[in-house]
Amino acid sequence: MAPPQTNDAGKPGTTRRSLLAGIAAVGALGAAGCSRVAAASTTHGGDLLSRLKAQGVVRLGIAGEIPFGYIDKNGNLTGEAPELAKVIFRRLGVDRVQPVPTEFGSLIPGLNSQQFDVVSAGMYINPERCQQVIFADPDYQMLDSFIVRKGNPKGLHTYRDVVEKRAKFATGTGYAEIQYAVEAGYKESEILIVPDQVAGLNAVEAGRADVFAGTALTTREVVKNSRKTEATKPFAPLVKGKPHIDGGGFAFRPTETGLRNAFNAELKKLKASGELFRILRPFGFTKAEMTDMTAKELCRG
Questions:
Q1: Mean pLDDT for the stretch of residues 274-288
Q2: CA dist., res. 190 & res. 198, Å (int)
Q3: Where is the Solute-binding protein family 3/N-terminal domain (predicted)?
Q4: Minimal CB count within 10 Å: which of 5, 80, 84, 291?
């Protein structure tokens, strides 16, 4: 995922703060049943998968991000990444998944300090993160989109449009879109930073921003009930002058290549059969967001 960032997804209909408050109790209850993750592997390629099979549960690091990984109103773990994890780990012989909620920026540190076994948060794959963890191949790809006023009065379709028309620009805390705007020539000090795309929608509706940038999926979902705004057509931001498409996937500790490879093998089967799309579709994903990109490609940037 090109430039460094700490948050890649949004949360239609709620804020990260309220989501984390709601899932903290679930995480605490889960921890009571399984107080620690499997110890660090010492064998070549790791032996975490065999130990997860033995204990019958894998702990998933999530960040309360709709539609990527969250606890729903009934207290159930769901989202595109956890639902995919349930299918793949069941095929790998691990029957139960257990959520461990944390802030998005704490996912990689938490993984490497063994607070959980796998990051299951739809995390964008980029060179910086690839220096810290290993990734499965992406289970989706994503373009950007803007939230603008109805009719898009300023004609904002790209980051360059935002710069040239001196539009008031907003995006989320730690979003990749910050760097995309800066690369297009927007001053970072002038960007309105808000918690998430719900706050971005509110900023555009209130006139505090002309445009909010986020992923195509989250922007189109959050404007569905808005009478004042719309989402623009998805587009690829420019990185080093070239169109860039992001991709998100599961993260593993660098020593656990065995588990990552086994996960990838099952993911490949789901892609080939079309079942991956059936799993992701209920969360707003379209066929345009399915991908054959590899983690290796995205790690190169």
A1: 96
A2: 20
A3: 57-287
A4: 291
Model confidence, pTM: 0.78
Query: What angle, rounded to 10 degrees, do the helices at 257-273 and 80-91 form?
Result: 100
Q: Which residues of 60-79 are buried (b: 16+ CB within 10 A; e: fewer)?
A: bbbbbbbbbbbbeeeeebbb
- CA-based nearest residue to 129, from 170, 87, 174, 85: 174
CA distance 296 to 301: 9
Task: Estimate to the nearest angstrom the gap between the alpha carbon of 224 and the chain centroid.
Answer: 20
Handedness of CA 270, 271, 273, 279 (dihedral sign): positive
**Main-chain dihedrals φ then ψ at residue 53, nearest 5 degrees:** -60, -40
pLDDT tens for 136-174 read 999 999 999 999 999 999 999 999 999 999 999 999 987
User: Mean pLDDT of all residues in the chain?
Assistant: 87
Q: What six digits make up the tokens of 137?
A: 């191949």
Per-residue DSSP letters for the chain?
Answer: --S--S-----TTS-HHHHHHHHHHHHHHHHHHS-SPPPPP-STT--HHHHHHHHTEEEEEE--BTTTBEE-TTS-EESHHHHHHHHHHHHTT--EEEEEE--GGGHHHHHHTTSSSEEEEEEEP-HHHHTT-EEPPPSEEE-EEEEEETT-TT---SHHHHHHTT--EEEETT-HHHHHHHHHT--GGG-EEESSHHHHHHHHHHTS-SEEEEEHHHHHHHTTT-SSEEEPPPBPPEETTEE--EEEEEEE-TT-HHHHHHHHHHHHHHHHHTHHHHHHGGGT--GGG-----HHHHHH-
